[in-house]
């Protein structure tokens, strides 16, 4: 499922966010991918994804400071890769 999304991502999307180690390289994408590999019969509805900052810093998206444990807006890459999954920590942009 994620491999297909990865393969079909547009160049515009891939180039839209550069504060990363590469397209689809954030922890939430890795975690969902590992969960799907561990249970090949799992669907999007079977997973619940919680995205939080694990340290203090400043958001690349809206430049607001954050403390560890806070929810945050996913980057465009993660929004695309995880579209349709149950996200319990998404905040407004």
From TrEMBL:
Give the first-level EC class, as a single word: hydrolase
- The EC number on file is 3.1.-.-
Q: Name one GO molecular function term.
A: hydrolase activity
Keywords for the protein's UniProt record, in alphabetical order: Hydrolase
- Name-wise, this protein is Putative ribonuclease YwqJ
**What is the organism field in this record?**
Streptococcus mitis
Encoding gene, per UniProt annotation: ywqJ
